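Pipeline run #58 for the internal structure catalog. This entry was flagged by the ingest filter as a single-chain record with no existing model, so it goes straight to prediction. Upstream metadata was stripped on purpose; only the residue string is passed forward. Reviewer on rotation: M.T. Logging verbosity set to normal.
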Amino acid sequence: MEIVMPEWISADIFNWVILPLLIAIARILDVSVGTIRLIFVARGYKYLAPLLGFVEVIIWLVAIGQIMQHLDNFMCYIGYGIGFALGNYLGIILVEMMSIGTVIIRIIPKLDTDILVKQLRAANHGVTIVNAEGKNGPINILFSIVKRKDLDGALQIINTNNPNAFYTIEEVQKVKEGFFKAPQSKPFFFGGMFGPSQLRK
């Protein structure tokens, strides 16, 4: 595909400034979409991932087509590389802004767990307690599965009531049943396409 520019733009400006910029923008778009697609695949969104893959490869073909037509222009390579780098960063930022998916928090408290459990449950976070044996004797391990958009609130409760607690956070691909905090507002961006949270008491 050949890009047609207005006559008042010189060939040098087009070849060394505008074309590399357009290639960078195309790469930012396709790599951002690709990053989101990969994360969607990892989280089990099998219907959106192929659609994003289609958009990604079309944009990539446009960008690589311009590179192949201007192999002697090193600025196109610079624009291609810059777009790839920024696309990865932007894709991750967009996924974080969407706050989609579900995570499991595994908590090993340093202090008594009664208050922490009460606070988490008061905030409508389900908590499961498992008795275990640690280095210094019996301990309780707490498990809570939360929507990613509610993660910051859950961590604030943990850090406030048990500031030295050890915890890990892991992605959950699929969830069936369970107890989740009731949604306070409409999910951001793509969130509404994945169906409402299931609430079980």
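catalog note: The chain has five helices and four strands.
catalog note: Confidence is low (pLDDT under 50) at residues 185-201.
status: ready for reviewer M.T.
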